[in-house]
Design brief:
Helix content: 25-40%
Shape: globular
Strand content: 25-35%
Distance between the termini: 14 Å
Structural class: alpha+beta
Radius of gyration: 23 Å
Number of helices: 13
């Protein structure tokens, strides 16, 4: 959002790395960064199993109790302070870039009391080619506890009914005041209630996976996490997964370390449905991303974005020159490029299935999901098709593209209170640049002030021509309980319904 990036709260992971314990004086701990070795997955499991047994024998406290109190062992703040000092004294851009990368990678080299207990990939672990068993930790439904994990005293679990307007409004209010905010406290995401309902209640959604935490006395909603069942293809394998998103804890309660418990409880509920893998994304690094992507931005209303200080004019330029440089290219939208209607869904499903299979990770959409996700909804999602005439009575859809809308609160401007952004969603076409020219014009005409997309799929093909600039905010993709080697972002065919704002790097 600002030049200093985002205080990412998707999956609510930022505070998992805060409030760490000092190392014991008699056993000082020194962080060591060494060259990562490629360790076979089987050896990782063996070593972790032995460590787990040792820890279980030395600590008689219950696992549930430890999860509520556990904190990472290393003092990340001290290491970060050293890097900040190095950054201040660094003169050349190359050194500053290296230090910035070290700071962003730091979470992967420190211990995590929570993530080190979870079935996720580790740095330096390799997965053999043609591996048939991708599950890191094997369990059965009968192994899963039937009672919820304990919460701190004074709180209780609550399944949130998004069909109930009152409860939907509660989720909106929680996210409005406590969700993703930039580090300058200038912008905060406005996840509309209708957007939440669209994103979290597709056909086949599980009510028990829309989970909240409430205060006993007031019944106020102070925590939230959601899971949505999805069929995801990874490395050619069809996998039933849960897309986990919108983890949020009230800002005043983060010292109670509810995030690990929320993640464990949603995992328990997902496992009870015989689903063992998950996919999620966030703007911060934890062990260990399967892929890292970056946001690219096309400004559509430079005057407003400059006014609210979302962007800054580059040195040796001016507002007028900058606006002229970013003027959209002239484009004529043909009559055969039109908004999708529900009856187009079978053809769109077929196009998506054919197009997405080229990627290493992609979703398989049912017909009902296509209708739900892509049928246009005002201020939520827009979808367009390009069709050709087969005969006087028959037309065929040849190309498809879509984008969704997210608004953002402007917190430090006397007059302007929000701005509207478009995010590229799914498409199926061999002419993405041509379709993007038309979509950018449509988005601008409908009042969007910026257009964002990740450098996934074939998006990089139009970045230079259409003057998309690389943003300052990364997006890391993660797989839960699934062993696979890192994947280049261009091999990702899956879009997370998660939004980050950013400035262009100058």
């Amino acid at each position: 959002m600002g030049s200093s990036g985002i205080n990412a709260e998707y999956m609510g992971l930022q505070f998992l790395m805060e409030g760490k314990e000092e190392p014991k004086k008699e056993e000082p701990t020194t962080p060591v960064v060494a060259e990562a070795k490629q360790v076979p997955l089987e050896e990782q499991k063996k070593v972790e199993g032995e460590v787990a047994k040792k820890e279980a024998g030395s600590d008689k406290k219950s696992e549930d109790e430890k999860d509520l109190k556990a904190k990472p062992e290393l003092k990340k703040e001290e290491i970060m302070a050293m890097l900040e000092k190095m950054d201040r004294y660094a003169k050349d851009p190359k050194s500053k870039g290296q230090i910035s990368q070290m700071k962003s990678m730091l979470p992967l080299f420190i211990k995590h009391a929570f993530w080190d207990t979870q079935p996720v990939m580790r740095m330096g672990i390799s997965v053999p080619e043609n591996k048939l068993d991708y599950t890191i930790e094997k369990k059965e439904v009968k192994d899963i506890k039937t009672t919820p994990y304990p919460l701190p005293e004074g709180f209780y679990w609550s399944v949130v009914d998004l069909a109930n307007e009152g409860e939907l409004s509660e989720v909106f209010d929680l996210l409005k005041d406590n969700y993703i905010e930039d580090s300058t406290k200038s912008f905060r995401y406005k996840i509309e209630a209708r957007f939440l309902k669209w994103a979290l209640t597709p056909p086949g959604y599980v009510k028990d996976w829309i989970l909240g935490v409430r205060i006993n006395k007031s019944k106020k909603l102070v925590g939230f996490i959601s899971g949505v069942p999805s069929k995801i293809v990874v490395d050619g394998m069809d996998v039933n997964m849960a897309r986990v998103s919108y983890l949020c804890v009230h800002s005043k309660l983060r010292t109670k370390r509810m995030a690990p418990v929320l993640i464990k409880e949603i995992t328990r509920r997902i496992n009870l449905k015989d689903v063992w893998q998950g996919i999620y994304a966030t703007g911060i690094r934890v062990p260990s991303p399967v892929s890292e992507s970056s946001y690219y931005i096309r400004y559509l209303d430079l005057k407003k974005l400059e006014e609210i200080k979302l962007i800054t004019i580059p040195p040796k330029s001016s507002s007028k020159r900058h606006a002229k440089m970013h003027k959209l290219p002239e484009v004529t939208i043909p009559d055969n490029f039109r908004k999708m209607v529900k009856k187009d869904a079978p053809q769109i499903q077929s196009l998506l299935e054919s197009y997405l299979k080229k990627y290493a990770i992609f979703p398989k959409f049912s017909l009902a999901e296509v209708k739900h996700l892509f049928t246009p909804k005002e201020e939520v999602v827009d979808s367009y098709v390009l069709e050709s005439t087969i005969s006087p009575t028959e037309k065929k859809i040849t190309d498809f593209i879509s984008f969704y809308t997210v608004k953002c609160f402007v917190l430090q401007h006397a007059i302007i209170k929000e701005y509207k952004a478009a995010y590229l969603f799914y498409y199926a076409t061999d002419k993405i640049g041509e379709l993007m020219k038309m979509v950018l014009k449509i988005a601008q005409t409908s009042g969007h002030e910026a257009f964002y997309c990740l450098n996934i799929m074939e998006n990089s093909k139009f970045f230079e021509e259409l003057k998309f600039g690389m943003g300052t905010t990364p997006m890391m993709y993660y797989l839960y309980n699934f062993a696979t080697n890192p994947i280049d972002s261009k091999e990702l065919g899956i879009v997370v319904l998660q939004s980050f704002s950013s400035t262009i790097q100058h």
